[in-house]
Specification:
With about 190 residues, this protein is of the alpha/beta class. It has one domain: Rossmann fold (3-Layer(aba) Sandwich). The chain is about 30% helix and about 25% strand. The protein has a 7-stranded mixed beta sheet, with helices on both faces. Strand 6 and strand 7 form a beta hairpin. It is globular and about 40 Å long. The structure holds S-adenosylmethionine. S-adenosylmethionine binds next to strand 2 and helix 5.
């Protein structure tokens, strides 16, 4: 099942909202990360820069074949060889990755799903102990030029209520990124 309102505008419009390297640094994606999982890779806005930073492999998933094709083209052009992409409905099928095998899960601009806890569950399963879950989303407190309807955007407070404190602790509390987004980084307990 595709996450509601998770379609993308044209790529130049989408890209104009982010400085990916700055975002990844703020989200604690660094060279100490070995393997990383990205759910909903979209145009690869964060996929390629993250793949250049991490030490291991990046496993990326998107329900849209067109998105995966676009990112695969960019990987070829950029000669990036540590990314494995799959067209996959992660909500229906999970990622299929081995449990406790991943150091970082990126859930970027996807948590307006009506049951975000389903995505937390999969992140928890695949992460190693002390692995990180990075959450980036459109701010829920202001109107923005793009993004899902304000009524379905999760606030940071709502996200903190939804995750299980026995599963995740806050490593980096909520902070604003750019004009329109917030981030937080959780750590698997
Ligand atoms: C709003 S875009 C964000 C893309 C990227 N994370 C970013 O921040 O640039 C959300 C992406 O998630 C994908 N998506 C939606 N539902 C999904 C599902 N059930 N399984 C895998 N991908 C999904 C969409 O096709 C879309 O490309």
């Amino acid at each position: 099942m595709k996450v509601r309102e998770s379609g993308m505008p044209d790529e130049p419009v989408w890209s104009s909202f982010f400085e990916p390297e700055m975002v990844l640094k703020a989200m604690l994606v660094d060279e100490h990360i070995d393997d990383l999982c990205e759910i909903g890779c979209g145009y690869g806005t964060f996929t390629l820069p993250a793949a250049r930073i991490i030490g291991g492999e990046l496993f990326g998933f998107d329900i849209e074949a067109a998105m995966v094709a676009v990112v695969n083209q960019k990987l070829l052009a950029g000669r990036i060889s540590n990314v494995r992409l799959a067209v996959r409905d992660v909500l229906k099928l999970t990622t299929g990755l081995e449990s406790a095998s991943i150091d970082y899960v990126m859930l970027f601009n996807l948590l307006h799903h009506d049951k975000p806890e389903e995505l937390f569950g999969e992140a928890f399963r695949v992460l190693k102990q002390h692995g990180r879950l990075g959450i980036l989303h459109w701010r829920s407190d202001i109107a923005t030029p793009r993004g899902p309807d304000l009524s379905i955007r999760p606030s940071p407070e709502r996200i903190l209520q939804l995750f299980d404190n026995n599963q995740f602790a806050v490593e980096k509390p909520t902070f604003f990124i750019g004009k329109y987004h917030y981030g937080m980084v959780l750590q698997k307990q």
